[in-house]
């Protein structure tokens, strides 16, 4: 049978062991103000991870193969705005797939998320040089007699190979109609103000 003295000795040892455990827990940061808080480190790690993700997003750069969304405003050399996404949804496209004119594709590479830049694209990197050979004069009687032909009107013309091209009427007389198959912005340098608003998917 255990004596009272031995019982007191064992209790003292147990208290000493518990005290050591508490000191170790405090030193490891698992106990704060006498409360066990293992969640605190987990929360801190999650917050740190979120900060890292935000930092990565802020420093993300557009590269070939990325699908991105941009806002843009396009102007001519004289300052005339010919197109803009202001007031509309951002333009979405994949860099390098030929969905945009070459100069625009190249201009967005390296843009940081939320960064804005202004680029000027020469005609040969936009809609090409203006070609006089794409302007043709057709006899007025080749069109239906009741057709109302006006300058600026866009028509679809079928080629011998079956390809459909768009032509713009640039002049109308009683006998002739001048048709221009050049793109409306052919031969023009284009300036774009571009803002990268989202990298939808990364290559």
TrEMBL record:
Keywords: Chaperone, Cytoplasm, Isomerase, Rotamase. One of its GO terms (cellular component) is cytoplasm. InterPro entries: PPIase_dom_sf (IPR046357), PPIase_FKBP_dom (IPR001179). Its EC number is 5.2.1.8. It is found in: Cytoplasm. It is an enzyme of class 5 (isomerase). Pfam families: FKBP_C. It catalyses: [protein]-peptidylproline (omega=180) = [protein]-peptidylproline (omega=0). Residues 65-149 form the PPIase FKBP-type domain. Its main location: cytoplasm. GO terms for molecular function: peptidyl-prolyl cis-trans isomerase activity. GO terms for biological process: protein refolding. PANTHER family: FKBP-TYPE PEPTIDYL-PROLYL CIS-TRANS ISOMERASE SLYD. Belongs to the FKBP-type PPIase family. This is Peptidyl-prolyl cis-trans isomerase. It comes from Candidatus Methanophaga sp. ANME-1 ERB7. The lineage of its organism: Archaea, Methanobacteriati, Methanobacteriota, Stenosarchaea group, Methanomicrobia. The gene is tig.
